[in-house]
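agent> Task received from the user: take the single chain below, predict its 3D structure, and emit structure tokens. No templates, no multimer pairing.
agent> Plan: (1) validate residues, (2) run structure prediction, (3) serialize to tokens, (4) report one or two observations.
agent> Step 1 OK, no nonstandard residues flagged.
tool_call: predict_structure(input=
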Amino acid sequence: MGDNSAIEWTDATWNPVTGCTKISPGCKNCYAERLAVRLRAMGNQRYRNGFSVTLHHDLLDLPLKWSRPRRIFVNSMSDLFHEAVPDDFIYQVFEAMKRADWHVFQILTKRSHRLAALAAGLSWAPNIWQGVSVENARQISRIRDLQTVGAAVRFLSVEPLLGPIHHLPLDGVHWVIVGGESGPGRRAMEPAWAREIRDQCVRAGVPFFFKQWGGRTPKAAGRVLDLRTWDEMPTPLASATP
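)
tool_result: status=success, residues=242
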């Protein structure tokens, strides 16, 4: 539950919560759901409930045991702000992140309304980055919610990008990740959609990270956009680099 990560923009994953439910088009081919089913079939006790939301209280202090500073993706196998996760457990996760202040924690949610509702009561330490997933223009409201949150770094994961987003609200946004879908049933991303978002980020001076084109596997089609890779990161990262 604290594995090194193959995800290009993070170093490790930490899953004090596993399991989720689908709420928007980006969830259709959820990689975490496929992985959870496999892990349960392999007898992994963390996934004895399959992809049902499950709290792992014994993992709350796991990052405190990692001495080397890392970028840690929080709940790669869930959504911390899922309605089935009690407020008190979310507070405990935030307290653990605040205590492990030598790491950078990267949280992503699609449940931005709950994020915004709880944000004032959460401890936004400088090492906690908060993001929202936005797969098409119909999910722009998630960015509006994120813009109200007092995180040191607010970021967007525009993945899987399922349609054009002509006007991406970037005020108060510090980082944008874009990627296409991979795996069974993948939906293709048009190059023009990715370029348009890249160009908006360049104009706004927002770091842009192009994760992948997508395909049968995440690396199948590479991650070169217009003859180069885009690996820009928000500047606070420097303070957490070992």
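agent> Step 4: summary for the user.
Confidence is low (pLDDT under 50) at residues 237-242.
agent> Done.
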